[in-house]
Amino acid sequence: MKIRLHEIELGTSDPKQSKDFYASVLGLEASVNQEQLTVFDSGTGGLDFNTSTHLPSKAVLTSFLTDDLEYVIDRLNKQGVQFEGPKQSHLGMKTIEFKDPDGYAIKVNQPTEESPDWLKV
Length: 121
Known about the structure:
The chain contains two helices and eight strands.
């Protein structure tokens, strides 16, 4: 099984203010600039840093990519970790979601045949 960090997403109530902050203070450049989502070039290929209204303000979501979601599900079951899914996600991926011990949201995605090649682990 392979797994890698895919993205860190911060929920924002003001996408423009958030985008302007990271661009002006840290000099990050947006690779995707939509009304409700900004994806910044993190400086590390395959790792995204996002701000969006997809999450509540001040929420943090950490996403991973894997080539074997069933293995991850089996590990979570063995550890007694409750999760939601698997379900279809964006870009043709299957996903599960759960919380870490501090309540942070974790998502593990597995690309499928329909997913773009750049997502495949």
